Description:
CATH architecture of the largest domain: 2-Layer Sandwich
Distance between the termini: 47 Å
Largest sheet: 6 strands, mixed
Strand order of the largest sheet: 7-6-5-8-10-9
Strand content: 25-35%
Shape: elongated
Number of domains: 4
Number of helices: 12
Amino acid sequence: MNSLVTLRNVMIPAPTEDDRRADDQRIRDALGLGPLEIPLAVLRKLPERRGHELACSVGRHSQGYCLIDVSCRSSFSVAMDLGTTNIAARLHDNVSGRVLSEAKMENPQLAFGSDILTRLHQAMTGKADELCACLRDGASVLIRKLCRDAGVEEASVHALAAAGNTVMSHFFLGLDVSRIPVAPFAPVSRKPGFFRARDLGLAIHPEALVHVLPNAGSYVGGDIVAGILASGMFGSEDPAVLIDVGTNAEVVIGCRDWLLVGAGAAGPALEEGIAGIGKRADRGIVYDVEIRNGRAVCRTFDDLPAAGVCGSGMVSLVCELYRAGIIGNDGALNPEQEGVEKLDGEMSFMLSCPPGSGLVIRQREIDNFLRSKAAMFTLLLVLLRSVGLGFGDIRKVYVAGALGTGIDAEKAAAIGMLPQWPASAIVPLGNASLEGAFMILKDSSLLGREDELIDRITYKHMHDDPEFMKEFAGAVFIPHTNPEMLKVR
């Protein structure tokens, strides 16, 4: 069996004078899978009638196999991305292999703070149980929506694969997070592994397998491991780059022989709740901007009225503001340019796409964005230097997260967020965390690959890296105080 959960019909022979095996042994022998765990709750459900066919939902975990349910008519699994800002999920039919529904929602932990550090502080001052329960409740709400949209029963969901950063994974499992933000930055669990849904109170079959992807440390979580799986860079002969920009930014450099990861606060300017117009890529969200004679022409997903700007749209907008002379190389808005006015005491630019849409970018949001793009570029630069590589040594650049939908490589390079890699080198991944978790559901052999990846990853701490701090200052400007550094040689 390759998928994490399969539905198998087996004939269970009736006992005879010559064959007095117990029912659990008959099931194990009939399935022929080796070590098979049969929970007490499943044993109690075995039908009294002997000598018949039994529909078994069987899951694979790190120690072997487990019987999740018997007499099943259907079986489903859920892949889930436990994002800091949003939770996204996908419902998978274990029999047909089809995706039945997808959904996302705001992470309900936003009520405790929009960033990880605020939530960690809340947890460490007595609200840890509330944060854990809040996240799990949100996961259950999302699962119910998936099932409702697909017309299936929640009790028929027999597995969940979840990926998130180290803090989100710990919240999901109810583990102590107080050790993560303080030296020596050691989390409670590195390889959480498998659990049962009943232990987490999730709205699926109580014996369902719940797999939480492993982390490689406090700042390299299961979402990055999922991204490495989704990109396929773990099997590449030549070094590749994975950039995952969400609430934070992580950069992975490596190939089949080694993997180096660095993380930094490069994502907030792309997230909703930080920039007033910032939104996740969705219907009606701006992904590209062109400014003509001071007026913005916006391209939105599905050509719907503009309702916000996603990560790639923010890159495009800032690039166009610079090209049109509306902002200088320091990002300051020019009050003499059309569309620039003071709102609530702050210089702002009104996007006219369409007129009256109310989309405004403020000076502090532009400043936040420039710090974010500087951190992004500097992270790439310093990591590559640390392994003796230059931008020209990279042929594939996988881009996930808020930046990965509709990114324009030329505009990203024009403002100094990325070096001048050709568009052909950029591979958008979308939600790589969700995709990596989904891959585990479809191919359980990747469980072994997870362990290999974790052991192969080296984490480079960037928080107080002197080279990072030195290079960051020049990268805040557009495109850079030394534009030669952006060239790919």
